[in-house]
Design brief:
This protein is α+β, with helices and mostly antiparallel strands. It has 2 domains: 58 residues, no CATH class; 42 residues. The protein is built from 3 helices and 4 strands.
Length: 100
């Protein structure tokens, strides 16, 4: 037997259609009308955020304005590489999971 659990006999591994990472089938998101398309959880979150951004393009109001400002702030953090900073990076990544 191998020490690596991903090489066990009988275990299926699927590849993310977007980024190419591999994972177990139960950890992949499938698109309803296209079951051949598998997305890892990370790419599924990204696609969800992009869909939300597109929907907000037609809306106006304080919540839409706030989400737009948060997206801009996230872009600036990523551009500056602050999410990789050893002092505040972990906190920023955790916070990013709960923001639009």
């Amino acid at each position: 037997m191998s020490a690596d659990p991903s090489t066990e006999v009988g275990e299926d591994i699927e590849r993310c259609w977007c980024c190419g990472s591999t994972d177990r089938p139960d950890r992949m998101v499938r698109l309803g009308n296209h079951p051949e398309v598998h997305l890892c959880v990370r790419c599924a979150h990204f696609v969800h955020q992009q869909a939300w951004r597109i929907e907000d393009g037609d809306k106006h109001g304080p919540a839409t304005f706030a989400r737009d400002r948060l997206r801009g702030l996230r872009s600036e953090v990523m551009r500056r590489g602050l999410h990789r900073n050893k002092f505040v990076g972990g906190m920023l990544r955790r916070l990013g999971k709960h923001l639009p």
